[in-house]
Write a structure and sequence with these properties.
The protein is of the alpha+beta class. The chain has helices spanning 2-14, 21-31, 39-49, 55-67, and strands spanning 72-77, 80-84, 90-95, 101-105, 129-132. The protein binds zinc ion (2 copies).
């Protein structure tokens, strides 16, 4: 655990982020989960141990982490912003029954060819969103 804490502190420092307890807690929380939580879910989770976090501090920690590229926003449902500490290129699956979101490895869709885009569009990033029904539903 101590080792992991050091690793997290080093990652934040490498990105030239001042290490605050909130940034540390939010990033550690996101690294431990793969469910793409909302800011509110992170807040609830953090406050389970000790009710020290506010919505504002969680949001500002998320924005700081996002700006340096450690966390990305995932927008799969209208109006709902989720967060992901997996910053490797990957796709997402979303179950339309239970709402579970799962990472799909980039290689899943090896054959996507973006060269077919019309001229003039400079693609910077893209990802596939698969919607359907998961094993449990
Ligand atoms: Zn499901
Ligand atoms: Zn993801």
């Amino acid at each position: 655990m101590k080792q992991e804490a050091n690793t997290i502190v080093n990652i934040l420092k490498k990105k030239k982020l001042r290490v605050t307890p909130q940034r540390f807690a939010v990033y550690a929380n996101l690294l431990h989960r793969t469910d793409h939580p909302t800011a509110e879910q992170i807040l609830n989770d953090l406050n389970k141990d000790a009710p020290t976090s506010s919505q504002a501090t969680v949001y500002s920690a998320l924005q700081a982490l996002r700006q340096v590229g450690l966390v990305r926003e995932v927008l799969l449902e209208p109006g709902i912003c989720r967060y992901d500490a997996n910053i490797e290129a990957h796709h997402h699956f979303r179950c339309r029954c239970c709402g579970v979101i799962e990472d799909l490895p980039w290689e899943t869709f090896e054959s996507i060819n973006i060269n077919g885009l019309r001229q003039g569009i400079k693609a910077e990033r893209y990802e596939v969103i698969v919607e359907g029904i998961c094993d449990r539903c």
